[in-house]
């Protein structure tokens, strides 16, 4: 029973810490939001709209760049998979030649890579 109470007390302490941390983050977020609103307060609505539009275009450029990068990485991965498949086939062929030749001094034909 004491162990159960100990566990409950630990959980209660964890919950109180979580709530305290959550409230602290909320206060920090509200302060940050207030600073942003003050900074925007000096801008006209037209300037804010231009700034938002610049942000959108910047985000679209970043998305496009990452899409190009992912396509490039996918092509590179496909090339490596083909090379790996070829290497596995070469290894199988060499193993087959070794087992057919008995391995005792038999010459192994070179397989082109």
Automatic annotation (TrEMBL):
InterPro entries: Kazrin, Kazrin_N. Residues 29-54 are annotated as: Disordered. It comes from Vespula squamosa (Southern yellow jacket). It comes from the Eukaryota. This is Kazrin N-terminal domain-containing protein. Residues 1-100 form the Kazrin N-terminal domain. Residues 45-54 have a biased composition (Basic and acidic residues).
């Amino acid at each position: 029973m004491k162990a159960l109470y100990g566990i409950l007390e630990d959980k209660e302490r964890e919950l109180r810490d979580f709530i305290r941390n959550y409230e602290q983050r909320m206060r920090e977020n509200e302060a940050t939001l207030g600073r942003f609103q003050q900074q925007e307060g000096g801008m006209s609505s037209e300037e804010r709209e231009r700034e938002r539009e610049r942000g959108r275009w910047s985000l679209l450029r970043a998305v496009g760049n990452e899409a190009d990068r992912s396509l490039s990485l996918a092509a590179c991965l496909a090339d490596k998979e083909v090379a790996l498949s070829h290497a596995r086939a070469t290894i199988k062929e060499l193993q087959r030649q070794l087992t057919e030749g008995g391995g005792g001094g038999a010459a192994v034909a070179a397989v082109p890579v």
